[in-house]
Amino acid sequence: MGNLRQTWAFSNFTARGIDGGSGFIAWHILTKLLDEGYDVVLTVRTSAKGDAILQHLPEGKRRLVSYALVDEIAKEDAFDEVIRSHPNLTYVIHTASPVFQGAADIVASIISPAINGATGILKSVHKYGSSVSRVVLTSSTAAVVAPGASKVFTEDHWAPHTLEKALAGEGSAYSTSKVSIPSQTPLLAEKAAWDFMRKAAPPPSFTLTVINNTWTFGPIAPFVASLSSVNMSNAGVRDLVAGVFRSGLPPTAPVFTWVDVRDVATAHVLSLTNPEAPGKRFVIAAGDFSNKTVCEIVRKRCPEVEAQLPPVDGDADDIGDQTVRLGNARSRAVLGMSYLGLEESIGDTVRSLVRLVEK
């Protein structure tokens, strides 16, 4: 892309949980943006979080980053001030979505922040971001896949989740937060963003691109302070190396598809300037995995944790039971994506977890 240091990008580190509260995907997007020469404005909930992020950046790149405070993305007009006070923004990347289990009120804790954040950022850009040319929104393959169906899912598919099903306890609240809004006529959360783009008056001067990434492994962010703060997708790898599964691996279900976080970050950054990306969704997935395969990789790549792992032949590989496949042809053809292998991704993930324990 060349040196784009005079271009501003906006990467969202707000919300009660960005993939588990650690800013996992957002961190890797940030480092990719800096590698490409972008200046970046982050949004964070607190100055302490912003300072922690800055402290973990190389000194030479730290000067390219500033942060603004956005306390709660579910609030009306939450992003107005930060957009208004940064008139030179060219691109906006919105990654914030709460990811945690066991919420007492899933509408207030998960669904509303996910929906209001996705549409709220678009509204703020529409009102005050006259210099913004493109918004890239992080969604999920949870907004694509219909559980139990036997087919290859692509960007043309939409999951059938509804708010009513979430309230009835059917499926995960995280998946539903990606595909429902609290209204009498359930609309997909991501569809709400597309709906805004179609109906806003006057028509938006910026374009929208959506990244639908699947279960995401990869190195944890360096500012993660404890194993309990590891993002949800990496939690299974964390538990594996911590000895939680020493007596036997749990089922891999319900998710058998994976991607490395560095590829997710690359997809976001490529989408900023790719002339064919506007108006498109991109399924970002590298392939299939099973817990047994992950365990075998850990045993091979990180023998120092051997004592924490279950017996070599103690568990059957259950990947043959899964029927859902994800098609990533569009990401390869349009964005030029190539994907890291599972062995490299898991090996790097484990090493980052070991470094956290050593700290």
Automatic annotation (TrEMBL):
Alphabetically ordered keywords of this record: Oxidoreductase
Keyword Transmembrane: no
Domain NAD-dependent epimerase/dehydratase: 20-285
GO MF term list: oxidoreductase activity, acting on the CH-OH group of donors, NAD or NADP as acceptor
SUPFAM superfamilies reported in the protein's UniProt record: NAD(P)-binding Rossmann-fold domains
Record-linked PANTHER family: NAD DEPENDENT EPIMERASE/DEHYDRATASE, STEROL-4-ALPHA-CARBOXYLATE 3-DEHYDROGENASE, DECARBOXYLATING
Protein family: Belongs to the NAD(P)-dependent epimerase/dehydratase family. Dihydroflavonol-4-reductase subfamily.
Identification of the protein by name: NAD-dependent epimerase/dehydratase domain-containing protein
Organism, as annotated: Zalerion maritima
